[in-house]
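Below is a filled-in request sheet from our internal design queue. Each sheet records the structural input a requester submitted and the sequence that came back. We keep these sheets so that new team members can see what a complete request looks like end to end.

REQUESTER: design group, bay 2
PRIORITY: normal
MODE: inverse folding
CHAIN LENGTH: 123
BACKBONE (tokenized):
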């Protein structure tokens, strides 16, 4: 299995630990899921895909590196009929939301945005 790992252990998470609702949008579709951030690690999923990655600050700004992998065979993602794909997001904080914009490694012309909002629960 492909696994996203932080490039350096000295990089710190820019999204506080917690559980987040995430809304994804592309030119093709929109969807949502849940992500748990813990010490820079971000894992989660929805009814069709699971997410695995890291949120970090790379020296130039906040980034999230995520792998999306299908667990329901007939599912179609917001980027189309894809079994698995990787996205590197650049991010910023706006109020209580974390806004991310990224592109698929496998199809750099495919733009994907995500908005994360923290849930009032303790992991």
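RETURNED SEQUENCE:
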């Amino acid at each position: 299995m492909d696994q996203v790992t932080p490039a350096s252990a000295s990089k710190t998470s820019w999204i506080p630990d917690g559980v987040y609702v995430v809304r994804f949008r592309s030119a093709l579709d929109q969807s949502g899921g849940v992500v748990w951030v813990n010490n820079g690690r971000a894992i989660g999923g929805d009814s069709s895909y699971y997410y695995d990655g890291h949120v970090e600050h790379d020296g130039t700004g906040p980034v999230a590196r995520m792998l999306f992998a299908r667990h329901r065979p007939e599912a179609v993602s917001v980027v189309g009929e894809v079994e698995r794909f990787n996205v590197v997001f650049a991010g910023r904080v706006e109020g209580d939301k974390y806004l991310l914009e990224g592109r698929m490694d496998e199809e750099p012309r495919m733009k994907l945005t995500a908005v994360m909002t923290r849930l009032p629960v303790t992991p």
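SHEET NOTES:
- Residues 1-10 have pLDDT under 50 and may be disordered.
- The two ends are 26 Å apart (CA to CA).
FILED BY: M.R.
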